[in-house]
Write a structure and sequence with these properties.
Order of helices and strands: HEHHEEE
Helix content: 25-40%
Structural class: alpha+beta
Number of strands: 4
Distance between the termini: 32 Å
Number of domains: 2
Shape: rod-shaped
Radius of gyration: 46 Å
Largest sheet: 4 strands, antiparallel
Strand content: over 45%
Oligomer: single chain
Strand order of the largest sheet: 3-2-1-4
Mean pLDDT: 78
Low-confidence stretches: none
Amino acid sequence: MLNKFFLLFGFVILFSGKVYSKTNFYQVTGAVASVEVLKTYTKQRVPKDEKRCSIQRVPVNQNAQKFGADNFIGALIGGAIGNQIGSGGGKSGSTAIGALIGSEIVRSEKANSNENYVEKEVCRIQKIIHTETIEQISGYRLNIEIDGEIISLNSNRSYNPGDLITLTKKITYTLN
């Protein structure tokens, strides 16, 4: 126990002594020997509208979707048949359903009889995601000739080779 006390006391005395040091700051001028541009690259996903076209077979006669006199006649015939089939309170419903069925039969016949097709370019706008790489300047690495040697420092500001640059030189002296 006593040995531990002396050991602890010795460490306190050893490390509690004054440390002697001196630091000097100097302004020195150097010349820029070379400049390297530092860049960062980021990838970004950008949506763009792109026109996509293809050749498709399209019917020449587009009248199959229109409601014409022949559809009206089909509706009348279908309504008359529905009227004959229906009885009592369901007679008006049968007539309406028969008219719809008769009109649809005529429309379907017009579409089926339309066998003339032409090849036509059909275009549509589609969203496409492109990946773009963006290049940004993040700084400059300067090689500076100073005190007979070349040192490298990074800077946010660009310089040209041959430019004079002022640096702060810090020298610290300590007693061991």
